[in-house]
Amino acid sequence: MIPENVLAALRQRFDTLQAPVTIDYFHQDESSLVVPGAPPSSPCPACGPTKETLEDLVGVSQKLRLVTHDFNAESQLVENWGVERVPAILLRRGGGAPPLRYYGLPAGHFFEVLIEVLSAFPAPPSPPAALSEVLNGLTETLSLIVVGSMGHPAAAQAVANAYQLALYSNKIETAVVEIETFPELVQQNGLRELPATIVAGKHGFSGVATPLSLAQFGVEAQQSDSPTAPQVAPGSSVAIGGEAGAETLSVSQDEEHEAELVDPAEESVDVAIVGGGPAGLQAALVLVRARKSVAVFDSSAPSRNAASHGVHNFIGFEGMLPEDLAKTAWEQINAVGGASLRTAEVTKVEKANDGDFVLTTAEGEKLGAHHVILAFGHLDALPDIPGVAECWGKSVISCPFCDGYEHRDRSWGLVVPSAGAKATPPLFAFNWTDNIKLFFGNGVELPEEIANALSGQGIELHQGDITSVNHEDGLISSVTLAGGENVPIETLLWSPDELPVPLVERLSRDLGLVVDNAGFIAVNQLQQTNVEGIWAAGDAIASTMALDSARSGGAVAMLIVQGWFEEPAH
Question: CA 431, 435, 441: angle at the middle one, nearest 5?
Fold first, then answer.
């Protein structure tokens, strides 16, 4: 479940654990009700992937220990530890303190938070003086429940803040609920925006509050039936369903959508794959080897990785150019036969009245398919700042795992353009260079204790929006800030905003395809969308667990093959 390059970083990370950590995992076995001819049903689809992820995680360090529990068989333990649903991950503290709980699949941005919690768990830091004073005002155990999407960076910040308070104080009881696994909780709890934090079981707010504001709200909630809602970061919540013009989040995979049916196409294949990157091509290879007919649609427009100087951390293909990787993949696919490459942009996918799908290209050509795999990745929205586009892929990079080695020992600038924006953690960058400068935008507030800690590590701090990236032939010499300051730099780490391709919005409108808060395709743990027969793979899914795009596509293909003759049409 966890890509090898991530595991390598985790091994280094957990080498410094000050004491062993036990992870208690609650799961639910397959149903005892067996239907002849059908595979066993699972009451907990997320339990299998969660267990695989945890097993990979504890495998990186002898200081991590995994203990599994059967939710049904160990009812007394479930009651004693307050486990409400599965999959559940618990970190138990000593001294009678309530455990830290996580419900759902540990993936996306939430996985990153859990790594931070595990790292700090054996020896939690002391809270700042102002926060410590507030926490001392707690008269009894305070419950914090954070509900959010693992694909939403602001939700991860809300989760991190709640867990941080629990690490600071044994009187804080924190539980996190990952909404992709439990979408029914939205309606059950009347939630309208996420992330939502429920305090003391009855007071709630949406958005992200600082740890200090959250603690103050918690103390007031113990003293008053009408506590004053904490101030939250602007734009840190998204609407569910939403109003016109608002950013929205769709989480329910059970909504009915009456799609207009069309006539079947004259030509058809077993599986159509939209996207010719690693995920799509891996799926194609698996499918043709299972004797399925396949069509791969790949637009002639430059791919998102067109600026890449080589594939890295992919065993057997290290340093290979993306176009050479695609050429090799097609040589292997064509050696088997059964697949065709169609250089065209798919603009529409419709449901046919025979149960299959009809794909239409920009040129008006139509093709039928029994299954559709969406593997078209996503778009990078580069900031509209002079010099960024010219340096992109050369000296402005977004992924230290991908390109950090080629930029080792250079002067790095890490950019945090706005509050909640995705960015490379400063201490993480020390794996590649000791010369680090942090640039955070005018709207980003860096707590004094964090600023002091970073400065103590030798990291230069610069506040101000970057207005220009100065370079020669794509190689950076410096950046200019809004105040006129010119800061020398050689490599800039800038994570651009990620946008779904336009086809996703069309599919959402025409077929009722469910998307997440950022407009990316929502899938279950098997990478199925809510539209039966349509799957998603690779970077089309907004999740950091989709780093291994090729394996993602292959997994989808295998699931299609495994279920092929269980479908009524076959």
Answer: 100
Q: Report how far apart, in Å, the C-alpha atoms of 175 and of each of 90, 234, 255 are.
A: 9, 24, 27
Phi, psi torsion values for 480, nearest 5 degrees: -110, 130
- 0.70 exceeded by pTM: no
How do residues 349-393 score in pLDDT, each as one tens digit? Answer: 999 999 999 999 999 999 999 999 999 988 888 999 999 999 999
Taking alpha carbons only, the member of 474, 475, 476, 472 closest to residue 487 is 476
Cβ contact 110:162 at 8 Å: no
pLDDT tens digits for range 32-45: 433 344 444 457 88
Class of domain 268-379+530-566 (CATH, top level): alpha beta
**Helix spans in 169-223 (H):** 184-188, 211-223
> In Å, what is the CA distance from 200 to each residue of 141, 175, 204, 326?
9, 12, 9, 54
Confirm if 316 and 324 have CB atoms less than 8 A apart. Answer: no
CA dist 268 to 275, 299, 400, Å? 18, 19, 42
Give me the CATH topology for the region 383-495: FAD/NAD(P)-binding domain (3.50.50)
Q: What's the gap between Cα 271 and its chain centre?
A: 27
Give the pLDDT score at 362: 94
Q: Find the angle CA(313)-CA(498)-CA(246) to the nearest 5 degrees.
A: 155
Name which of 561, 546, 560, 553 is nearest 279 in CA terms.
553
Q: With contact defined as beta carbons under 8 Å apart, do 325 and 278 qualify?
A: yes
Strand partners, 498: 380
The parts of the chain modelled with pLDDT lower than 70 are 1, 5, 30-42, 234-259, 301-308, 310, 313-315, 517, 524-525, 542-552, 566-570
Q: Where are the domains of the chain?
A: 4-32+40-223, 268-379+530-566, 383-495
Same topology between domain 268-379+530-566 and domain 383-495: yes
Write down the CATH number for the domain with range 4-32+40-223. 3.40.30.80
